Amino acid sequence: MKTASLYSRLENWALWCKSPGRPQGHCRSIEYRYKAEGAWDVKYTPPAIDHFDAIDIEAAITSPEFCPILRGLLVAEFIYRANPFATAKRLRFHPRDYQAKRTLALMELAERL
After folding, report:
1. How far apart are CA 91 and CA 73, in angstroms?
2. pLDDT score, position 39
3. Nearest partner of 11 among 72, 77, 67, 99, judged by Cα
4. Under a CB-based contact definition with an 8 Å cutoff, are residues 7 and 78 in contact?
5. How many Å from the N-terminal Cα to the C-terminal Cα in the chain?
6. pLDDT above 90 covers what percent of the chain?
């Protein structure tokens, strides 16, 4: 997965962060795990996760040199799938600067990998 695009590597990292085998820093809610009666009949194959690539990205993002605002932007976009306007407001920058900050975050991450 080393030759994959940065976007697909970040998607893999987000799946790894949300996977149940990864130790979490807090208690996860069971609220959204409800499945309707017919849901158990469908065979679902979860996507394969490249754990080593995800660990590389995690190390790059959590390094102390990585800007906290850009780190928060990547986490909000890829893990939480947050609204760009809400993300900009929470990270305290103007919403019109979202694309510029996103590009800067992706460039800085690509530089560290």
Report:
1. 8
2. 58
3. 77
4. no
5. 13
6. 35
